Amino acid sequence: MTQLPDFEAISSAVTNIATEDGKYKNISITFDMFLQTWPDTAGGFSEPGMMAGQGFTDEYTTVAKCQRYNNISEPPQIIYAIFFGNHGAYTITNPSEKFFSDLKERRLLGKYEALTKNIYTVDD
How many domains does the chain have? Predict the structure, then answer.
């Protein structure tokens, strides 16, 4: 049976991410959690050349959507924080359509692919 993530620890980590620069007065956070199957025991943290056990591994993915703003009449800054199991993987501040498509399909890229291929963000 796949272990559920420590939601309290993830919630605390997301709050730290959302408040780290100290310039936002109001923060709203929503969470989406789903199970993903990975091709090896490294889960969402697999990298080329990495030694990992063979065999499919189920692991929970948690996506936190943080909306930060000072004034309710201004558009919020939005940050997506991605966790695999209990571990933070990456954050996205300007998500691409590919990110939303993969999120809808419940199949996000692992940390290495998301950070090296840079297909989940778009330039401002």
Answer: 1
Range of the domain at 83: 7-117
- CA torsion, ordered 43, 115, 64, 101, to nearest 10 deg: -90
- The answer to whether position 2 is within a domain reads no
CA separation for the pair 62, 86 (Å, rounded):
9
Residue 40 has a pLDDT of: 77
DSSP class per residue in the chain: -PPPP-HHHHHHHHHHHHHTTS--SEEEEEEEEEEEEEEETTGGG--TT----EEEEEEEEEEEEEEEESSTTSPPEEEEEEEETTEEEEEESSB-HHHHHHHHHT-PPPHHHHHHH--SB---
1 within some domain: no
pLDDT for the residue numbered 124:
46
Distances (CA, A) of 18 to 4, 57, 81, 108, 116: 23, 30, 9, 21, 24
Positions of the chain with pLDDT under 50? 124
CB 71 within 8 A of CB 96: no
